[in-house]
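S.,

Sequence below, as promised.
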Amino acid sequence: MLKPNSQKDYTSLGGSYQVFLPLNLEFQVSKDDPVRLLRHCIGGMDITALEKTYQRIDRNLASPRQMLAIVVYAGMNHIFSSRRIELACKRDINFMYLLEDKPVPDHTTIARFRSKHLASCIKELFAQMDFMLEEAGAISLQDIFIDGTKIESVANKYKFVHGIGKRKTSLQKTLEQLDEFIARLKKYNKYLHIMGNRNSFAKTDTDATFMRMKEDAMKNGQLKPAYNIQYGTDSEFVTWATVGPQPTDTTTLIPFLQEMERYPHKRYRNVVADAGYESEENYLYLETNQQRSFIKPNNYEKSKTRKWKQDIGRKENMTYLADADAYLCAQGRKLTVTKEFIRKSKNGFQSQITHYSCEHCKDCPVKSQCIHGNHCKAPLEERIKNIEISKRFQRQRQEDLKRLTSPEGIQLRVNRSIQAEGAFAMVKADMTFRRFLTRGNKNVLVETMLLAMAYNIQKLHCKIQAEKLNRHRIPVDNAA
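The prediction came back faster than expected:
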């Protein structure tokens, strides 16, 4: 019969089947195990920024460097809960190898390490990984492939407030209604302050924004509180990551590139992104910084369809007369400049728009095919053909399209779909990470960058084993 002591210490039970683990774990870990590569990489990083977050470092406990290695290795093994990480440190020999005979940290210590210590220096630590990859020659420093995805917040997507009433006098009801209106006004002002430039936020995670998710089990386009995660990949490694509330990717490009220059201090020559990033503001920013854009135009796929090519109402299917600065429609009638004005976007970016109007559309036999839209209340017989164009945007798009359809552009476009989208596929499908465990931009960024660091170590291990560390672009012939 088992009779453990009062302190629940099972070491005194003994027995003929007692097994002792060897004290030296160095021989228990295989030579090509990724945990060895992880310890080497973390050991070579400058973690001064992390150590500054501690008032005093207890040498008898796991060091900040060991704690960082543990949480990154946990991500490599698809372990994200602090309680599960604590359990792995007690049972998994590789976690013991990283602890180096130090006591196992409890789940509160692990959670505090991520929310308190890493939250204030995760960007500096991630930049250190970039420097390490650069020294190893693992990244090209020429091509950056950018893509985004939405990951659900831990916030509750259903929140209801109910109340009960009773019979009251008319005066009492009026006074209570007035108090309710005043309280509502204060509450709405508070909500507007929290919301800022966004159009929504979650009450249980005010930094999360309601976004339309692709991974929707109900298949009905349900809005959920989420964060927009941006990855920039180089040679299949994630070299930077950001977290934002934007429901679309258009406005994320410039802040992403600015942060890259601030922390890893990198400015890539070639910026490759999909159609969601195309805008005049983004083109101008890249052009000003002497970076080449390889951004797929919004109309790239549609422009190859028969319906698009046969639509005589589109300016792309009209003849532009450069000398007269006019467009020639399918009936040979000119659309000339009538005015120019400035259009301001939601971000405050100003674009100069040129307005063209047809000289005369009366008695045009193809008028119904040329003039689209029902926004004008005037009858079709009285309407004339109008188009609005930003000449700078048109020039930028044409230059970008020329680069995109070149042999180099085709190779970069194929690599973007493999490298950038492949990184998200690994995180969401292979690592099974589909929902954040913490709240707030800072904590969510910690989770995002820890995932990226875990992905990078795993990718570095695979490349070393396959002897492909110096391969930066995947050849188009091998893309399939």
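DSSP finds 15 helices and eleven strands in the chain.

Coffee later?
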